[in-house]
Amino acid sequence: MTVPDQPQRPAQYVLEYPEGYPAVYEADVVLRDGATAHLRPITPGDADLLVAFYGRVSEQSKYYRFFAPYPQLSDRDVARFTQVDYVDRLALIVTVGDDMIGVGRYERTGRRTAEVAFLIEDAHQGRGLGQLLLEHLAQAAREHGIARFIAEVLPDNRKMITVFTEAGYKVAREFEDGVIMVEFDIAPTDTSFGVMQAREQRSEALSIARLLTPAGVAVIGASRREGTIGNALLRNLRDGGFPGRLYAVNTDTQASEIDGVPAYPTIRDVDGPVDLAVVAVRAEMVADVILDCAAKGVRGLVVVSSGFAEIGDEGRKRQRYLVGLARSYGMRVIGPNALGVINTAPGVSLNATLSPLMPSRGRVAFFCQSGALGVSILADMVGRGLGLSSFVSAGNRADVSGNDLMQFWYSDEATEVVLLYLESLGNPRKFSRVARRLAGRKPVVALKSGRATQGVPLGHTVRRSTLPPATVDSLFRQSGLIGVDTPGELFDVAQLLAHQPLPKGRRVAIVSNSDALTLLALDSVAACGLAVAGEPRTLNAEATAADFGAALSEVFADDRVHSVVVIFTPPVQSNGAEVARVLAAAAAGSDKPVVSTFLASRSVPEQLRVPDEHGGAARGSIPSFSSPQYAVGALAKATTYAEWRRRADSRIPDLPGIDTAGAEDFVAEFLQRHPHGADLDDADRQRLLSFYDISVLPAFPVLSADEAVDRAADLGFEVILKATAEQWRMRPDLADIWRHIHDEDDMREAWAEMTRTFGVASDPARAQFVVQKMAPPGVPVVISALEDVSYGPVVTFGLSGVATDLLGDRSYRMPPLTTTDAAEMVREVRAAPLLYGYRGSDPVDIPAIENLLHRVSRLTLELEEVVRCDLRSVLVAAQGATVLDTTIRIAPNEKPRQDTPARRLT
């Protein structure tokens, strides 16, 4: 079967796209009830689709739209509504399958204003279509210079009034001639962002809940033949105790049952409702299966089948077609090439995976992308006795991703700890935003593979980032994620977080009956940046349970102690059970976390377990690790996360002196002059930065000694002569700056020496010399912003110099920056002590650095076309910071950012 690349969804009415059709406005969206739909601009080919839609709309809804009886659309109406210019007149429609279910449009009424209107099919009202259309119309309108929407609404059309008033914008209303006039600015605000993100979380969480809590499940491709995927899926669902209705579907069988499960030739023939279809058929058959599932009313799919993007171009086409088709009919997809899903919740007991291991019920949720690793992960969890709330292995991650699962787990009361194994980040900006929100409520432990190589599995379709691997680590820190390096460390940290409280500080007490293991623990405490509270309580090898009890009572009562590490190795006469009882009694009711190396076990030992109502380990149970290094390492991760949770309220600061509109106009005018993009010259750089209240010390190019002397005289001397050509900047063997030029003789000496040093005496232009006023002495730093095709804007900070470049000593953050983000950027580089008075030098003005970081962050966040902005020489003094040298490039953004204000599935 040859899979068509287009169309990717069954929009049979759209035969061709008109000139100027903005495909970028197309989006798959999640509705309020968790189902999906497709949103796109209208085309002239949608005439029949519009007429059919209008015929299903009630007379009342038509009256609300047109303020008069309007039973049908004339040919002139149809032409006017479907033929738009996509700039001054834009209409967006929402479709499910082959049906249009809603339309929203704006028409420009002035240079900066437009009238907006909506019409939603009655059967689909209340699903959030109006709010989605408003978000996407507002985003498109802003791109075309429209700043304000107006609308006329009848007083009893309460649903439409609610769409406007609950959008998060500041809405003005007036009553005139029996009509309510609504008017509001459409610039995004903190309130409107908050509203959209809350709606996004609720709808995406519900879309996942539909997958994880089915009442009826069908295995398509089920088989009674041992060793087949279809047989394993059916058996695991049945044996896992799924209480709902289970169906086997196999086109080749005439039997009425397979392994005791009712069997049918197609899902259309199933005699009961099906919420979830688990698909294990050949890849070329999946598209037909999706159409059958749509006809049956299935809510979601787990596609275990392989043969998609992981096999190459043909598979990628097949995968795009699969996702587009499923979403167009309201269904989410886990997979393809997925291991499956598990939900241990009472009344669900769903094991729709290829793994026969069903973990016990617990408080830890897990998302992974690798099916092969998923099997070993489940085995490790069972081996450690670590309970699970839910598990999703997404395979190629064509639709459902870790972002969706984090949205679900944010509000899932059964989940207290989230684990992520990530092979790729499809939408890093959204990942960071969603993870940060979740981490503020629940700990999130993440393992990202391929950081060193930026490798991406074949089946994953992602934009390839050009940023260094350190960016991922910085993204994790910014979002409050607990980053780990190995699967073992992932479960070590989970074991601690699932059973013990978070530490309230970094001071650790050690109670041990082994000198050797105590030394290992002390080394680990120092290496992890923790501190020992007093001297370790090292008992002898013959210590009794009473000895342990006395030492433990002492450390738990000590206010200096924030966490406790207990090491117990069995003496010749083992008294492990007695020591366990003493330890459990001492820790009971304490708010200090306890980790142990108890008989070198790697789980929660039975003796240290507080049983829950399901027979698992409840909170208060004490985890054990095979060695002190692992125990202390997990404790250090939890401590750092606890500090992130406790840090002072962080906010995005208000920055005075910013002219966003002026900057946007400048960028638009620049791109008219340079449609393919260009580096800005000195004057344009000064002008653009001035919109963000960033001043640059002027530098004046000179081509001769006489010209350098004249320019220095104009500046009143006290200047520098600098070579700015890239090949000589910051060369350790060449001095590219001559400072402290007081008079003409100094300048001529500087010119002679520098042209000789660089070998450009006959052609000084090669060195690109400039004369610049001396800045106050200080520490040179670099602040940069880059528009990455995957991450979007990323701001970096480091000290200036070859050592920084060589060692990669930089910090990274994704805008917008909070006050804490900026403060951490400055402090986390290894050379930061040079800014704080290293070896008797004067401390520099740290707030001035943070102010520049915020302003560059704001610039790159608001101006998507600024693909690079470097303040590549900033001299920070005891008071103030002087920007000496900049480079900026503006270019058309060929691939828009993935995390837009308007909600969409990516």
Automatic annotation (TrEMBL):
Keywords: Ligase. One of its GO terms (molecular function) is ligase activity. PANTHER family: COA BINDING DOMAIN CONTAINING PROTEIN, PEPTIDYL-LYSINE N-ACETYLTRANSFERASE PATZ. InterPro entries: Acyl_CoA_acyltransferase, ATP_grasp_subdomain_1, CoA-bd, GNAT_dom, NAD(P)-bd_dom_sf, Succ_CoA_lig_flav_dom, Succinyl-CoA_synth-like. Residues 37-191 form the N-acetyltransferase domain. This is Bifunctional GNAT family N-acetyltransferase/acetate--CoA ligase family protein. The keyword Ligase applies. Pfam families: Acetyltransf_3, ATP-grasp_5, CoA_binding_2, Succ_CoA_lig. Signal peptide: none annotated. The keyword Ligase applies. CDD domains: NAT_SF. Coiled coil: none annotated. It comes from Kribbella koreensis.
